[in-house]
Write a structure and sequence with these properties.
CATH architecture of the domain at 401-506: Alpha Horseshoe
Number of strands: 0
Number of helices: 35
CATH topology of the domain at 401-506: Serine Threonine Protein Phosphatase 5, Tetratricopeptide repeat
Largest sheet: none
Strand content: under 5%
Distance between the termini: 82 Å
Oligomer: single chain
Helix content: over 70%
Shape: globular
Length: 606
């Protein structure tokens, strides 16, 4: 059989080859065709699972390269219809390339072959959701509970599929997702839709404003915020969000490791590119190059894969090759600002500074918030003896889009670096006049005020942020630090951290900070060693025993509880983890280890 197929490959065109390998798939079953009764269906399933296939027109629409790849996956699954791996590969390709019902058939079969495996139930849920089958999707997602209660993307997805029929239930899922990740913009957007549908207008407005201010360049969130404000008669505020919506911008990429695995297996161009970048970071550039060359043949994947190949060449210090690839990207997509920035860097490496300045200046004007571009441009301007030019470009970018609070915040950062604190404060206040709920800008203003020792004003800014978004965990951390260190109010700091954990119950940062306060307080009445141990153990477990500061806190908590051997063990782990990244706290950890080895706890100086 294999030799016959090889012979066919050499004789027929790709389309003819696929048609020969997929007999019986030129026509899908007629919807009016009599269905088998349940008993005969069951008997048929016991005999053989029929691998789902596409019609000839559906295959042709994929393009030759992808058609060939999908054909290979289909034939592999037909050859081994009980193979979970083969069916999963085919199901992933169907899902990524727009055939979710066929994908669902593959993953439904896998859940029969491997009942109870939460990963495949999750993939089945993704497929049913894409196919517009919310009841089936919800059932599959419920079957994926084994992924763990902390897998936030599953809860967000359950909110999405519940939303049309049961907004009240969707609200519960979205809120559970935000308990786990308060920065999930897509969950905030979904929660807003559900709240409006459930008649909760005030809550819906607050949620969409949080989403729009967490992700100012997400056009759909800005548009939804503008519509909500307009419907409430708040036209001036609506216009500000409408202007930001006009800037454009896609949805943020959700954090979904399991979903990303399926998209990568299905050869989604963006996921393949991300895989290649990970390989490059690990030094496996040959595999990265193979992955990207494969991605270049995918529909819609050529430009992104070419840019990624440029990054691989740059990692190998092949400057001319990288520059040529980035130029190829810009020829295909003149708006690819990241390619402009990367090309500028390659030209610097080749000594072509005037051309480098041109490309970097253009990229920076388009996206002044892009930190890597700003850093490259500033370094080049310093080399060219034009140290003030970066600030001039930032000022021009604000002048070109004066309604953009992000650009004003970036300009404020550059003013602050240049020592022009008054100008930085003025720019931040202008940004907040435009968009009062722009949390990053308000936090930036508060931190600048801390640097100026204006602690009361800084606290007021953080408190205002928390009034609007009580899930903004960074505000609790900064506010508690000000209260403890500037006001010398340890109890007040403890109250702020506890309040934060009420609103963000799964925050390991807040748990760690509260544990430190309870373990190391100089006043015995304020120490709670056992609670400190519980909080610190939770934070360490949540981060996989990798955060050196959390390991240090757990050591201090053990010492406070009189468990000095455990404290010394954790201190050594903290020292080892800190040594790997050359952390500045290393000497502090060594000092604490010395205390624990002498059966002494650490106390924060008064």
């Amino acid at each position: 059989m294999a030799s016959r197929l090889n012979a066919i490959t050499t004789v027929f065109s790709a389309a003819g080859f696929v048609a020969l390998l997929l007999p019986g798939c030129d026509r899908k079953p007629d919807a009016g065709q009599p269905a088998q009764d349940a008993a005969s269906q069951h008997a048929s399933a016991q005999v053989q699972f029929e691998v789902p296939c596409l019609t000839s027109s559906e295959r042709a629409a994929l393009g030759t390269a992808l058609e060939m790849k999908l054909t290979g996956a289909y034939n592999a699954a037909c050859a081994e219809p009980e193979s979970v791996t083969k069916l999963a590969t085919l199901g992933a390709m169907y899902y990524v390339h727009g055939h979710p019902k066929e994908s669902a058939a593959c993953f439904r079969r896998i859940t029969e072959l491997k009942p109870g495996d939460p990963h495949y139930s999750y993939y089945l849920g993704m497929a049913w959701q894409a196919a517009g089958q919310p009841a089936e999707a919800l059932a599959a997602y419920e079957g994926a509970a084994g992924l763990g209660p902390a897998y936030e993307p599953r809860l967000r997805a359950m909110g999405e599929v519940c939303m049309p029929a049961s907004p009240g239930r969707a609200i519960e899922y979205y809120q559970a997702a935000l308990d786990l990740d308060p920065s999930d913009v897509l969950a905030w957007c979904g929660l807003s839709r559900a709240q409006f549908a459930h008649g909760q207008r005030d809550e819906g407005l607050r949620s969409i404003l949080i989403a729009a201010n967490l992700e100012p360049y997400y056009a759909d969130a800005q548009h939804s915020a503008a519509e909500a404000l307009r419907n409430l008669g708040r036209h001036a505020e609506a216009e500000q969000y409408a202007q930001m919506a006009g800037v454009g911008g896609n949805a943020p990429q959700p954090k979904d490791p399991f979903g990303e695995s399926m998209r990568r297996a299905g050869m989604e161009p963006r996921a393949v590119r991300a895989e290649a970048m990970q390989l490059t970071e690990r030094g496996d550039v040959e595999r990265a190059r193979v992955v990207l060359e494969r991605a270049r043949s995918l529909p819609g994947g050529a430009v992104a894969a070419t840019e990624a190949l440029g990054a691989v060449a740059a990692a190998e210090k092949k400057w001319e090759v990288a520059a040529s690839l980035f130029s190829e990207v810009l020829a295909a997509d003149p708006q690819a600002y990241s390619a402009k920035s990367s090309l500028g860097e390659m030209l610097i490496q080749q000594g072509n500074l005037s051309e480098a300045e041109r490309w970097l200046r253009e990229a920076l004007m388009e996206h002044p918030e892009h930190a890597a571009t700003a850093k490259r441009f500033a370094a080049l301007m310093s080399q060219l003896k034009k140290p003030h030019e970066t600030l001039a470009v930032m000022q021009a970018a604000v002048a070109a889009r004066p309604f953009d609070p992000v650009r004003r915040s970036v300009l404020a950062q550059h003013y602050a670096v240049a020592g022009r604190t008054d100008a930085a404060l003025a720019e931040l206040r202008a940004a907040l006049d435009l968009q009062p709920d722009y949390f990053p800008g308000r936090q930036q203003l508060a931190l600048l005020l801390v640097g100026e020792r204006q602690y009361a004003a800084a606290k007021a800014e953080f408190e205002r942020t928390l009034q609007t978004n009580p899930r903004y965990e960074e505000a609790y951390l900064y506010l508690s630090t000000i209260v403890i260190q500037a006001d010398k109010d340890l109890r007040g700091g403890e109250r702020i951290l506890r309040d934060g954990l009420k609103h963000v119950p799964n925050s390991h940062s807040l748990a760690n900070s509260l544990a430190w306060v309870l373990a190391t307080a100089s006043d015995p009445a304020q120490r709670k060693p056992e609670e400190a141990v519980q909080l610190a153990e939770r934070a360490v477990a949540a981060t996989g025993h990798t955060q050196h500061s959390y390991l240090d806190t757990l050591g201090a908590a053990y010492a406070a509880a009189g468990r000095f051997a455990d404290a010394a063990r954790l201190a050594r782990q903290a020292i080892e983890a800190a040594s790997r990244v050359n952390a500045p706290e290393l000497e502090q950890y060594r000092t604490r280890l010395g205390l624990y080895e002498q059966d002494q706890p650490f106390r924060t100086p008064e």
